[in-house]
Amino acid sequence: MAKGGPRPGAGRKPGRPNATTAAQRAAVLASGLSPLDYLLGVMRDISNPDALRIEVAKAAAPYCHPRLAITQLDIDDSRLLSPEERRARIEELVGQLGLTETLN
Predict the structure, then answer these.
(1) Which positions ≥6 away from 36 have C-beta within 8 Å?
(2) Least CB-packed of 35, 67, 74, 84 within 10 Å?
(3) Where do the structural domains in the chain lie, given as residue ranges?
(4) Who wins on pLDDT, 53 or 8?
(5) How far is the C-alpha of 4 from the C-alpha of 65, rounded, in Å?
């Protein structure tokens, strides 16, 4: 058996915080008010100036809403119909429906 390298089942499981992170999170929760709760409280307080409330909202937003990712769409142009093909297809469907009105 070779020594070294990763062993199956070794190490911290994915998604599980390390001891320091877990201790910090527990201390914040024990204090009764998280930094995000504080920011949201400042933002919701209408007695604060609007400029302050907007800045606080910007600071809190990443913790409340995910960033939108850029998505690239790959469109297969070979499946698109030309205007003449679309018109012919529409006329075909209108005929199948028994509509006698003409398309302009």
Answers:
(1) 60, 63, 64
(2) 74
(3) 21-64
(4) 53
(5) 42
For residue 62, what are the CA distances in angstroms to 55, 56, 58, 67?
13, 11, 8, 7
The per-residue pLDDT for 59 is: 95
43 CB neighbour count, 10 Å cutoff: 19
Query: Please, are residues 96 and 80 in contact by the beta-carbon 8 Å criterion?
Result: no
User: What DSSP designation does 26 have?
Assistant: H
Check residues 48 and 95 and name the one with the higher pLDDT.
48
| CB neighbours of residue 56 within 10 Å | 19
| Residues comprising the chain, all counted | 104
The tokens describing 78, both together, are: 């070979």
Average pLDDT of the residues in 35-45: 92
